[in-house]
Each structure stands twice: as structure tokens, then as C-alpha cells.
Write a structure and sequence with these properties.
alpha+beta; eight-stranded mixed sheet; disordered N terminus
């Protein structure tokens, strides 16, 4: 076993609520388990917790405008062609597990809506009624939306990246999407290159924020390509945001947070809002939380183009 990869073991997650997931990945990859298994198991624990649904992830998330919870999830390995995703999936509290089955056992790479639900049933998942999918707070928020057309903020996609003992790198994302979104709406989260991207030779990245805006810029792919050119993860993430700002050509941007990890286990982030993330790498006693300070679109667009 190469010393390079032992020293490169690492895990990172978006937002402060990812801490338990990153701790789970830490234990699993330290025990020699595969990065993909670590991402799936850690993600599924968060997805299936009604309490974390308020962060717009999995069971307990906010429903669409018709009152139905629709979830998106994807998982991508650094190995070429290893990608699986579901979108607008109904009735399953752990959509990342269905995405994993798509990765390992479908002729296709992405399944959506009724097709995703049918595939889940074929693979042994039970489709639950929507009353089991919503928490009391999110159900109450939906009633208020119907009565007062009052929405709630939320773009908190959970993104996880794991680098294991053997140098396998995997990234996963999960989101129930914008609260009270239109039925069938899909954001950036499950789209390769947008919400997530991995390359075994380079590293991986994951994005969170306003998915309807993010998906136009493929920030995760861009960050990995910049790391391929030799940029450190933090530098790559900031350069992606700078490029977006310059392409927008305006001082008004949108919410985006971006994390990246290279094959050395080095991590970095950049964001347009205050952005907590959690990470661990070999040699650290425990998972740490870091607060990424926001950069303004004005300062980004003013800098020289990268």
C-alpha cells in the first residue's frame, strides 16, 4: 500500500450539519473501506434524519408547490464513466442509495421522476407516502406557503468527498431542492460537472447554492480542471467564482459555495456567502469546522481575469 495514499486520506462536507457525515467517512476510510461506500453510508444517515431535512436534504425536506417531496442525489467516482444519479425522486428517504444502485446496476447514468421511482422499487426500495416524508416543521411551512404564499430560504445541498486508503476518490451530493419549487424542477446538484465532479488523476469538487444559476456554469468541473493545471484547491475554487463574476458582468450575483479536494488530501473552498464546511485528513485528531468568508461579486469582477 502506497504511503502517498495513506497520507492522502481525507473527507470534506458542505455546511456545518455535515460534521456527523464527515466523522462517519473518517471512521470508514481509516478502517480501509472504499470511498464510495463511505460517501453513500454517511450521506444516507443525514438524508434519513427528519431533523436535518430542514437543511433541504432528504426526508424532512421542504415539498414542492404541490406538497410533494422530490429529492435529487448523485454519486461520482474518480474512475472514468462511474456516475449515477436520480432526480425528482419521490417516496424514498435515502435517494443517495438509489443513485448508488444506478451507478452499479443500471444501463443508464441518470433516472428521473416516475422512472427513478420505478427503478427504486425494482431494486427493493419501498415508496413511502408523502406524510412519512415531511417533518412537522416542513409540513407547517408548506401550509403557510399555501395560505400566505410565504416561502423560506434554503439552498443547502449536502456535498461529501472522500479519499480512501487506496487512492479512490468519490463525491456525492443530495438535495430536496428549493422549498416549494415547481414539480419536476431539478437544480445543479445531480448534474455531473455542475453539482459534483471527480477525476481520479486530479481530485473532486462539489457545489451548493442557487442551483438554477449554478448549473449554467459547471463550477465543479471547472474547479477540477484548474487543479489539473496545478492550482491548489482553494485557489481553484476562488478562480471559478471570479470567472463566473466576470461572465455575469454585474455586481449582483447569486448564492454559491464550492469545495474541492486534490489527490493529496488538500482541501479548499470559496463562496459568495458565509459558508461553513467540515473536513478531516490524515494526521488530524478529529473533524474540524471551517468558516469560509464570503467574497463579493464586486471584488471578484474587479480582479484580473484568470
Amino acid at each position: 500500500m502506497s504511503k502517498k495514499y495513506i497520507e492522502g486520506m481525507a473527507a470534506i462536507g458542505t455546511w456545518a450539519f455535515s460534521q456527523s457525515a464527515v466523522e462517519k467517512m473518517q471512521r470508514m476510510i481509516s478502517a480501509g473501506e472504499h470511498a464510495t461506500d463511505a460517501v453513500e453510508e454517511a450521506m444516507a444517515e443525514v438524508e434519513d434524519d427528519l431533523e436535518t431535512g430542514r437543511f433541504v436534504v432528504g426526508r424532512g425536506g421542504f415539498p414542492n408547490s404541490a406538497g410533494v417531496l422530490e429529492c435529487d442525489a448523485a454519486i461520482m467516482e474518480g474512475q472514468p464513466g462511474r456516475f449515477g444519479a436520480v432526480a425528482a425522486l419521490r417516496g424514498v428517504g435515502t435517494p443517495i442509495r438509489v443513485a448508488r444502485r444506478v451507478l452499479d446496476g443500471s444501463l443508464h447514468s441518470m433516472l428521473v421522476g416516475e422512472g427513478a421511482s420505478a427503478f427504486a422499487q425494482e431494486r427493493g426500495f419501498s415508496l413511502e407516502p408523502d406524510s412519512h416524508m415531511l417533518s412537522a416543521p416542513t409540513a407547517a411551512a408548506y401550509l403557510e406557503f399555501l395560505q400566505k404564499r410565504k416561502s423560506v430560504p434554503g439552498h443547502d445541498t449536502l456535498g461529501l468527498i472522500a479519499l480512501d486508503l487506496k487512492g479512490n476518490i468519490t463525491v456525492g451530493v443530495s438535495s430536496s431542492g428549493m422549498p416549494f419549487k415547481a414539480p419536476g424542477r431539478v437544480g445543479d446538484s445531480p448534474l455531473p460537472g455542475c453539482g459534483l465532479y471527480a477525476d481520479q488523476r486530479v481530485g473532486a469538487a462539489a457545489a451548493t447554492g442557487d442551483g438554477d444559476q449554478i448549473l449554467s456554469y459547471c463550477p465543479s468541473f471547472h474547479a477540477v480542471q484548474l487543479m489539473k493545471q496545478g492550482r491548489a484547491p482553494a485557489e481553484a475554487c476562488e478562480a471559478v467564482l471570479r470567472d463566473i463574476a466576470q461572465r455575469l458582468g454585474t455586481d449582483e450575483g447569486f448564492e454559491i459555495g464550492l469545495v474541492a479536494m486534490n489527490m493529496k488530501g488538500e482541501v479548499g473552498a470559496a463562496s459568495s456567502l458565509e459558508f461553513p464546511y467540515t473536513f478531516w485528513n490524515f494526521g488530524m485528531a478529529s473533524v474540524e469546522k471551517c468558516i469560509q468568508n464570503p467574497v463579493t461579486w464586486v471584488s471578484l469582477s474587479a480582479n484580473q481575469q484568470q
